[in-house]
Structures are given as C-alpha cells and as structure tokens.
Known about the structure:
It is built from eleven helices and 15 strands. It is of the alpha/beta class.
Amino acid sequence: MRPxxxxxxxxxxxxxxxxxxxxxxxxxxxxxxxxxxAGGKIGPSLSRLCRRASDAASxxxxxxxxxxxxxxxxxxxxxxxxxxxxxxxxxxxxxxxxLYLAGRKFGSTGSxxxxxxxxxxxxxxxxxxxxxxxxxxxxxxxxxxxxEVPRGGSSESDDPAPVGEYAQSCLGRERVxxxxxxxxxxxxxxxxxNYAVDLRYGVLVxxxxxxYAGEPVKVLVPAFNVIWQRDANSxxxxxxxxxxxxxxxxxxxxxxxxLVRDVAEFFARRxxxxxWYDGIEGPKALLSDASLSHRLLGPPTVASMELAGMxxxxxxxxxxxxxxxxxxxxxxxxx
Length: 335
C-alpha cells in the first residue's frame, strides 16, 4: 500500500521520480532535451523527470523548457516563446531530442481557428525547424472512433475517425509530422495519450469531485481508460529511443477498461456519500488498447483502481484541483 500523497510538493516529487528504466534510457540517450509547450499540465513534471533521470544517470545534458510561461524547475533552462510566432521558433536552439507537448483542447469549440493554428500550423513550423532532431509528438486517443464498450478499445492499426474539429485538428498535427518524417527524414513517434491523471486533474478526479460534492455524474460516455501521469511521463521520455522516419504510433493509457458507474460507486463508498447519475448511458466510449506500448516499455506501475484510491485520498485531505475538466463525457467532439 502506497502512503497517501499529502502535499503539492510530494505530488510533484512523485510525478517526476525516475525509475531504473528511465535512468537506463538517459544513460544511453545522447544529447540535450527540449520540451516544447512545457507550461501546460504535463510539462512541469516531465521537465523534472528529464532532469532527475539524467542526473541519476550521471549524464550531463541541458534540459530546456519552452513555453509562453515556462515552469521554474531546478536545473531546467527556461525559454519564453510565443510558439505561433515563426520567427520566435526559428530562434530556438537546435536540440537532438524534442518532446512536443504544444496543443489546444479546452475552449476549442469557441475559437476553432486558434485550435487549427496551434494543432496544425504550429507543427509545420516546429517540424521544419527541428528536422534534424528526433521528436515525440503528444497526441490523443480522440483521433479514433468511439467504439462499443465490450470491444475493449482501438489499437494503433485502426483507421482514425476523428469526430469534431478538435479531434480533426489533432489528426492534422499527426499528419504534418508524418509528412516531415517520410519526406524530410524527421524521426518521430506519435504518442496517443488518454487519459492521464495526476490527482489534481483527470477523469478520475472529475468523477470523484462530482461524487464528493453531491453532484450527478454524467454517463452518456459509459467507460474510459486512465494512466498515472508519472507513468505517462516515463513512457514519453523513453519513447525518444523509438522515434523513426517511419513514425511509430503508440497508444498510452492503462491496461484496464473502467466503467463510469463502477468508479462513481467506488468513490461514493469511500466518501460515504450517495451517488447520482445524469443522462442515459450510451453504448460507446473512447477507449484505447495500449498493449503495444506495454510490451515495448513495460506495464504501468500503478493500476487504475489503485490510482482511484490515490485520488480519493487526495480529495479527502483537501488537495487542490487545477480546475481543468477532461470533458471525457463529451460524445459529439465539441470541447
């Protein structure tokens, strides 16, 4: 049984704690690491993991965080950059290893032009500038069609079928990097993540806080997958070794398929509160089969319901929220 995480500082330490596989990867990997879009939810802990794993491997390298408001991480260089400014991107230092986190989801329905600029125009600018690098490109399982829940989840060989402009633009981002890989020799890997949980945000947090507040839980989308953010960070870092000019696609999530009602009832029991539901349960959900990434990079270190218990501990202790809902319950692609 893991001890509860009691503070933001403890959480940040846990999210960036390297394991033996991370350290081994950093001992083999050559060159500096640059993290684009490092100011979002994932960037700070991933930057810390890169720094800590490199230090543990006794490999001197620069770790550089780039964003409009880059995080302040000890040992990580910060560069302020408007990534939608091509001249600003052209001024970024060349780096052999790039973790590409930049993108837009929340509010994409209200400003579709900005969503397309961030998710399609920017990748072309970045891929052109870093065409001598290897790039792990963060994407999303939203590029798949929603599938019947008993089926289990989409695999990397399934054809994309994005619903809504956000998901379409994410597929556009993938296609841009794929073009530069196949036609300009840019080694990359498409990192299709859903859904990461770091106790302050994620699907489990969305459901838990609804139950804790006595609010109804929406069930139109009846199932989901999750992964502990530290495990996702580790997979991203180690995916740098898997980049290729014939881009590999990896689904990144946990091994289990969770049902919304089961999870809501788990939190209701933990909190000693009633559980309410909103809507009619639908037959389909956005689910991913991540067995390929588990074979290549090892299974997640935290199982999904263990992660649910960690979320419950955090909420009961009054842990803060980032107030960034996943909108996992959206079925029409309008985020």
